[in-house]
Amino acid sequence: MTAFFTALTKSLASPRGPALRSLAIGGALWFVASLASAAQGYIFSLHHGRAQPWWPTLGYTAAIFSIWALLTPLALKAADRIDAALPGRAATVILWLLGYPLATVTHIAAFVILFWPVYGQDAATPLAMAKPVLLANVDTSLFAYLALTAAVAWRRHRPSTTAALSGVGLERTVDDALWVRGSGGALRVPLGEIDWIAAAGDYAELHSAGRAMLTDDSLAALSRRLPADEFARIHRGAIVRIDRIRAMRRLGRGDAMLVLTDGRQLRLSRRFRKNIAAHLPR
Predict the structure, then answer these.
(1) 44-62 pLDDT, tens per residue?
(2) Does residue 164 lie within any of the structural domains?
């Protein structure tokens, strides 16, 4: 047991520590949600004189929420892609609303596939099992989806993980290159070869000459470190190299679409327009 906690401490202190902490915190929160939901169902059954056995109730509830825990990384990744691609807040909200039934159906399908041997004895087919599970978990599904959206919102506004590590992120300076992950090691990419940079969870994805490469820095940390006369953050999910901008198309309400020299289109949010205002047409 001592060896386990020692190894866990070392892993959390490593460069991947923030990601491991996020996974640990997320798993703990979903487990607490399972306990709360199971307790609610148990108390409700006692109130109506139909007491349910506690451990089977907790096991079923934990199984339900375990699927939501598995879907969480996918939802966070989808949120990053949505933020980087959609040209307006209204479109983002609409897509998140449409995402609720999609996430619910995905959750039920995964639950039936994984837990059919355990909870499918009373159903003739997996499809017959899916309907009662869906109806019994309408409120749980809504709660879980709202929890996911809250996690996305918190993740957007929390301080940069890289900057929080012993204050090192704020003090490091970029010379003329960034280090990215390569096959079997690391690769040094000169700043002049970078076209744009996308958010990738706690990390960032460099795009250069059609290649995508992952760096351990967050987008927020890079936006502070990269030279302001060469790079500008244009969206909460993207940084662009200024000399790669070939054209700008106005979208209204202060937003715009930037066209890069390779044809890539990136949204310029009015929130970040000031970052490159001097380089845009009046």
Answers:
(1) 888 888 878 888 889 999 9
(2) no
